[in-house]
Amino acid sequence: MDRIDVPEPYWLADRASDMTSEDDLDLECRECDETFAAHVLNNGGDCDLTLNNYPGVKVDAGTAFYDGPDEDDWEEPEPPANAFSVFLQSHRETWNMLNENALPADGSSLINRMVFAHQISAMEAFLADTVIIHVTSEPDAMNRLLEEDSDLKKEKFNLAQIAADPNLVRKVVLKHLRSLMYHNIARVRVLYQTVLNMDLFKLLSKDELETLMRAVDYRHDCVHRNGHTQEGEKLIVFTPEYVERIAGITHSLVNGIERKRIVGSF
To answer: 161 near 168, Cβ under 8 Å?
Structure first.
């Protein structure tokens, strides 16, 4: 069975009967290699195909599914020029919530969980933006990534693809970097060792690192299970003291990265 593109129904129509779209297209037969002119009707539920020169021939067509826009239609925003300043602003706002608007003492509080989850997300954003900025601005960092990253080394392109798009390598690298899960600290450690020549694990004490790794798991439980563990147990760890500790650890990590990055640039 072949897949073909058909016109999208008029989803904004006032009546279901007005949703039907139609168009003329050409169908290629894989058996005889001939092309047949056809007319298609798509109402969002059923799709009907009729061969113009053979109206009596029944063509089986399944339901037309929307497969989303092309990848090029989704333009990723450029990372901020100063990822550190963005993180500090976010960190300052959560710190003000901790100190000026006291969080509930209950460790299972939704507000506490939200502030905690945001702290991890702000750290992730900084980790991602910093790597992307460095790779796209430092040719040596780009080359190291291309040489050492196991996923990128698997990429294969022919000469025609390379000639057609002089920015092909940059696009592939950016797509790869943006697809990574930056809360996976162990994976990000390897990335930072490759790109920025720094070991994230050496920027925190052993206790801080263990606490942060556990916090990443808690954050997953907050985002995907509404604050419950995989076994269904409700987490009650999110006291104001715990949230403040995570704020301190994420700040220490980000600050350490920024210091080493600046020193390394001289």
So the answer is: yes
